[in-house]
Amino acid sequence: MREIGDRGHLIDFLFTLALFCVFALSALAVVMIGADVYRSTVAEMRRSYDSRTSVTYIAEKIRQNDRAGAVSVQAFGDGDALVLEQTVNGSVYETYIYADGGKLRELLIPQGLELEPADGQSIMEITEFHVELTEDRLVRLEVISADGTVSQMSVAPRC
Asked: C-alpha distances in angstroms, 159 versus 23, 44, 82, 88, 139?
């Protein structure tokens, strides 16, 4: 009779061990699925940030400088630049927003001063930047981010 009792304890132990292994594998599977979901969410958020931030930044700069004749497009470096004019303490300054060397750049200089495109402050990495001022005074922006995502926006200055 003693042999049957030992065998019963062995079966109880093996059942408990098997149940623990099933629980551990299930927990591991949930963690791995969660990590994969987190990784894909972070990648999507980064792509979304890169594609939207640049055009949103430029649109906000246009809105900040929304005065009659303060927004224009000029040739600068190898492409076009959005030029925003502002007066500070009686002096006129121009902010150039343009692409150079794979980066979106911003350059604030006194009006009439000539600088090189590489002198601008780097804002973020992009592939291309296109800006157009239409006949109806609409500013059309197109930015191609480093990962190839195209973001477009049209801004209508009030002045």
From this structure: 66, 37, 16, 19, 12
pLDDT tens figures, 69-100: 889 999 998 889 999 999 889 999 999 999 99
Contact 63, 44 (CB under 8 A): no
User: 């931030």: which residue's tokens?
Assistant: 53
Distance CA 125, CA 10 (A): 64
d(CA 84, CA 63): 10
Indicate yes or no: pTM above 0.85: no
Distance, in Å, from the CA atom of 76 to the CA atom of 53, rounded to the nearest integer, reads 22
Q: What is the pLDDT of residues 44-74, one digit of tens each?
A: 888 888 778 889 999 999 999 888 888 999 9
